[in-house]
Every structure is written in structure tokens, then in C-alpha cells.
Amino acid sequence: MKFLDRLERIFRPFAIPNLTQVLIAGQVVLLIASFAQPGLLAGAPLVWNEVLKGEFWRLLTFLIVPFRANPLWLFFACYIFYLFGNSLQAIWGYVRYNAFLWLGILFTIAAAALVRDQPVTGHFLYLTVFLAFATYNPEFEIRLMFVLPIKVKYLAYFQVAYYLLQLVNGSNGDRVMVIASIGNYLIFFAPALFQRIRNVQRKVQWESKQYKPGNKPRHVCATCGINSNTHPRMDFRYCSKCDGELAYCEEHLRNHECVRAKAETTL
After folding, report:
1. In the Cβ-directed half-sphere of 88, how many Cα atoms lie within 13 Å?
2. What is the distance in angstroms between the CA of the first residue and the CA of the last residue of the chain?
3. Alpha-carbon distance 70 to 81, whole Å?
4. How many angstroms separate the CA atoms of 122 and 61, rounded?
5. How crowded is the C-beta side of 216, counted as CA atoms within 13 Å?
6. pTM of the full predicted structure?
7. pLDDT tens digits for 201-243?
8. Cα-flanking dihedrals φ and ψ of residue 214, to 5°?
9. Could you give the 3-state DSSP secondary structure of residue 200?
């Protein structure tokens, strides 16, 4: 967190409130302008060789290349970006959200300098906004085409699989762009992800120890016989009305015949 705090101080002078809306507005304006001047979109992506020839505007215009040329698809894509971007800004504050995007912008420009002749847009960068949102809200549902409900975590898995595919089978330029596009995400989330992986490993190790035959179970259900070794995630409880310390699983805690009650009835 201290490193992210330093990043905030670095990028604070460049922070733009409501940056998501600014980028969306830029895409809409560029698309509308391209209707009057069709060749306008061709001069917007970042091509480093063209920058070296004096087309310095590409260092900024690549950020507002429209997601889609079709207005309907553009509206849908911008709506999703608006939803996710504003959610992150609400969680982080606009300065840290700016730091996240500006860091990705710098990585993207550096990657463009390596591939030199390959056109680069901000689309890969904006996908990291989706990944960040999915990390915070994995169960959030969106409706694809406003119809099909799907949780964002599944779309995030698909995106990660696509990145891995590009790293394995893509060109060198594709690999560079993938690494650049997730650089800011890793800086912000890698420590928490590594900690989550370590917690999962510890849990698996603990559960594997519970399964060892030589280990005496801590709890055994007096009704069905399942125990804490064979069912480590089961919640066992002890009945205060039974004689002795008799444990029961969740299913039989409220659905069993108390030992004391049975004895008293016999007498």
C-alpha cells in the first residue's frame, strides 16, 4: 500500500476528475468527426514510427479510438466502461483511479515503442479496468446485449484465458501488448492475489492433514457418523439436552432424538 500511496503522489498533479466520462466523450466526438472525415480514425492509433515522423498527437488520440465503429455497439461498450470505471473511482478515489490508468498508459506507450510499426489503441488498457472491477465484484451480474445475465467473474476468466493464449501463440508484438496491458493491474493487485493464493495453499494443507487416517476426528455426528476428518467443512454442534457430549452435524442437530429424553421415557 505504501507503494501505491507514492504512486498517488506522483500522479496527483495529472489526475482528472471523472476521467472515465472524459475518455468516453473523446471516443464519441472522434467517431462523429470521422463521419465527416473518414480518414480521421486511421490517424488516431499509436504507431511509434509515425510519432517519430512528427505525428505527436497519436500519443493521446490512441486513448479515444472508439471501441466500435457501430454507434449501437459503441453505446453498449461505453456504458460498460462507464459502469466499471465509475465503480473503481468510487472505491479508490479519483486520484488512485487516475494513477491506475496513467500507469497503464505509460506501459502501453512503452510497448508501442518496442513494436514500432504496430497500431496500438487503448482497448487492452481499458480491459484492465474490467479486470480490476471483477476482482472487487466477482459476483456482479451484467446482461450481455441487455438480455443474457452473466457474472463478471466468468467474463474475467475468459479474458485471462485470452491473454494466456496470446502469450503462448501470439506474435512478439501481441505478447508485448498483453504484458503492457496488465502491468498496471499486477502492480495494484499482485500482493493481494499472492496472499489469496497462500491462504488457499494453507487451507488445502490443513484439510489434507485432517484426512490422514491416523488422526482422531475432533467431532463425530452421533446420528449419521460423519466426522470432522471426512467432512472438514461441516459445522458440528453439541446438544445441551443430551446426556454426555454428543455432537451432531448440521442436518441432525435439530432432527435427532435426545438421549436424555429417551432414557426418561423408558423409566
Report:
1. 27
2. 68
3. 16
4. 9
5. 1
6. 0.71
7. 666 666 666 555 556 777 888 888 888 777 777 888 888 778 7
8. -75, -15
9. helix
d(CA 71, CA 79): 12
Q: What confidence tens digit (pLDDT) does each residue in 156-177 have?
A: 898 889 888 888 887 777 788 8
Cell numbers describing residue 199: 491462504
Q: Are 17 and 94 in contact (CB under 8 A)?
A: yes
Amino acid 99 reads A
Which three cell numbers mark 246? Answer: 454428543
Residues 6+ apart with CB under 8 A from 22: 16
Q: For 162-200, b where at least 16 C-beta lie within 10 A, e where not — what string? A: ebeebeeebeebbbbbbebbbbbbebbbeeeeeeeeeee
Question: How, if at all, do strands 148-151 and 141-144 pair?
Answer: antiparallel
Q: Residue 1 — very low, low, confident or very high, per pLDDT cuts 50/70/90?
A: low
The per-residue DSSP string of 90-125 comes to HHH-HHHHHHHHHHHHHHHHHHHHHH-SS-B-SHHH
Q: Where are the beta strands (DSSP E) in 168-254?
A: 237-238, 247-248
Q: How far is Cα 71 from Cα 78, in angstroms, rounded to an integer?
A: 10
Q: Is 248 helix (H, G, I), strand (E, B) or coil?
A: strand
251: left (phi over 0), alpha (psi -120 to 50) or beta: alpha
Q: Among all chains, which residue has been given the C-alpha cell 459476483?
A: 139
Burial of 44 (0-12, 13-18, 19+ CB in 10 A): buried
Closest CA to 66 of 86, 44, 98, 87: 44
| Three cell numbers written together for 187 | 502492480
CB atoms within 10 A of CB 101: 25
